[in-house]
């Protein structure tokens, strides 16, 4: 019998205190103990100002912990530098609101990571960008600036920019916020497809973490859930446990609905 293959955690946090983005000396979440395994899909829920964005930035290796031990893809985020560039490029991040470069077109925004990080000919860059824009239904908007797009499409362009390097770990901060109902459903369907293994990723499953203030749209028997409340982080389990919980915080997050915009 062959020995079992060991897969290290994608993210491992032990006794971690998360710093606030607006004040790096302030603890916004304390004593986080969390392990994310390869191929898992985590939904981290919390009300406004509960520390969702702060935790996600730490999980991406973009900020160091105030206390505790944190490893992202086997590396300490505090030591992320040029020598760890290969590991950093295995992580994709979609910021709340997209955060596209306003002076660049959609195609230029998506191409930027390739131009900075890959030694590719311009024709190769253009081909990869075109393929991804078509996959995400963005091809008609390739030459437009972000200011010329509705928020629905800006958010999708930000997803394309995060996916262009084919990351192993994708983190998304409030990806459904402010989207119309049709776009919300597109995101839910597409993220499920890349989680399981999409042709764009050569069929390789992806590890995903999303944040939200409304749990119900993310219901799925195989996803995992965690909650931020009162500077604490707690694992809520799988969906049947979440849906049947008597925890008042979970009840509030289950009752929340993200009001879709009319587009």
CATH architecture of the largest domain: 3-Layer(aba) Sandwich
Name the structural class.
alpha/beta
CATH topology of the largest domain: Rossmann fold
Q: What's the multimeric state?
A: single chain
Number of helices: 8
N-to-C span: 57 Å
Largest sheet, if any? 6 strands, mixed
Based on CA atoms alone, the radius of gyration comes out at 18 Å
With strands numbered from the N-terminus, the spatial order across the biggest sheet is: 5-6-7-3-8-9
The named CATH superfamily of the largest domain = P-loop containing nucleotide triphosphate hydrolases
In one word, what is the shape?
globular
How many structural units, i.e. domains?
2
General description of the model:
With 263 residues, the protein is an alpha/beta fold. It folds into two domains: 11-90 and 167-255, P-loop containing nucleotide triphosphate hydrolases (Rossmann fold), CATH 3.40.50; 102-166, no CATH class. Helix content is 31%, strand content 24%. It has eight helices and nine strands. The protein has helices at residues 52-59, 85-88, 106-117, 122-135, 151-163, 181-196, 239-244, 248-255; strands at residues 11-20, 23-36, 41-46, 67-72, 91-94, 169-172, 207-212, 224-229, 232-238. The strands form two sheets. Strands 5-6-7-3-8-9 form a six-stranded mixed sheet, sandwiched between helices. Strands 2-1-4 form a three-stranded antiparallel sheet, covered by helices on one side. Strand 1 and strand 2 form a beta hairpin. The longest helix is centred in the C-terminal third of the chain and has 16 residues, at 181-196. The protein is globular and about 55 Å long. Mean pLDDT is 89; it is low at 1-5 and 259-263.
């Amino acid at each position: 019998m062959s020995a079992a293959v060991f897969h290290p955690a994608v993210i491992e946090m032990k006794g971690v205190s998360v710093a606030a983005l607006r004040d790096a000396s302030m603890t916004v979440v304390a004593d986080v103990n969390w392990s994310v395994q390869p191929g898992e899909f985590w939904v981290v829920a919390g009300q406004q100002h509960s520390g969702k964005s702060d935790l996600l930035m730490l999980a991406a290796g973009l900020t160091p912990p105030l206390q505790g031990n944190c490893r992202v893809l086997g590396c300490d985020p505090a030591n992320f530098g040029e020598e760890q560039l290969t590991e950093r490029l295995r992580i994709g991040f979609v910021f709340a609101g997209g955060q596209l470069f306003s002076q660049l077109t959609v195609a230029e925004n998506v191409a930027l990571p390739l131009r900075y990080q890959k030694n590719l000919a311009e024709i190769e860059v253009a081909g990869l960008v075109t393929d991804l824009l078509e996959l995400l239904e963005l091809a008609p908007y390739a030459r437009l600036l972000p200011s010329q797009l509705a928020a629905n499409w800006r958010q999708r362009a930000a997803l394309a920019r995060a996916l262009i390097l084919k990351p192993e770990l994708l983190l998304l901060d409030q990806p459904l916020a402010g989207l119309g109902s049709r776009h919300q459903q597109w995101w839910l369907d597409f993220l499920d497809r890349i989680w399981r293994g999409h042709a764009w990723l050569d069929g390789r499953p992806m590890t995903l973490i999303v944040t939200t203030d409304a749990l119900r749209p993310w219901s799925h028997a195989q996803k995992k859930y965690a909650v931020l409340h009162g500077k604490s982080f707690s694992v809520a389990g799988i969906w049947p446990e979440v849906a049947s919980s008597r925890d008042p915080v979970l009840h509030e997050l289950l009752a929340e609905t993200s009001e879709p915009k009319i587009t």
